[in-house]
Amino acid sequence: MIITKLSETETSPNPHHVDARKLFDSPHAVVVVITLQPGESLKKHKTPVDVFFYVLEGTGIVEIGDEQAEVTKDSLVESPARIPHRWINESSEVFRVLVAKVPKPTEETKLL
After folding, report:
1. What average pLDDT score do residues 51-64 get?
2. pLDDT greater than 90 at residue 19
């Protein structure tokens, strides 16, 4: 059994310059927790695989393609491969989301 604690995982360098911590990395999938402080956001980008997001804490704005929605804790959001997307924290609280990429990408994410 392997147990990974978020608090004991170091943030990974990323082009968005936000707190992103890889919790799981196997040949089949990748799981990251992204924490956005008030006013922080991700740059719009595309992933080469399907992604699903699970909101762990707070309220944030998700943009996928031409759609935008406010989501809160315990929401699951599906994001298809190669569709531009990003997250925005316009609230005054921390926003935390779990990101799962399945299957594990073999190409890099592309910033737009």
Report:
1. 98
2. yes
Burial of 55 (0-12, 13-18, 19+ CB in 10 A): buried
Task: Count CA atoms within 13 Å of residue 4 on its CB side.
Answer: 11
Better-scored residue on pLDDT, 108 or 36: 36
Q: Is the C-alpha dihedral spanning 23, 9, 97, 51 positive or negative?
A: negative
29 and 37 in contact (C-beta within 8 Å)?
Answer: no
What does the alpha-carbon distance between residue 111 and residue 45 come to, in Å, rounded to a whole number? 4
Q: How far apart are CA 6 and CA 1, in angstroms?
A: 16
> What residue has token string 């998700």?
62
pLDDT at 108 over 90: no
Ranges of beta strands (E only) in 39-109 are 45-46, 51-57, 59-64, 67-72, 76-79, 85-88, 95-101
Using the 8-state DSSP alphabet, how is residue 41 labeled?
B
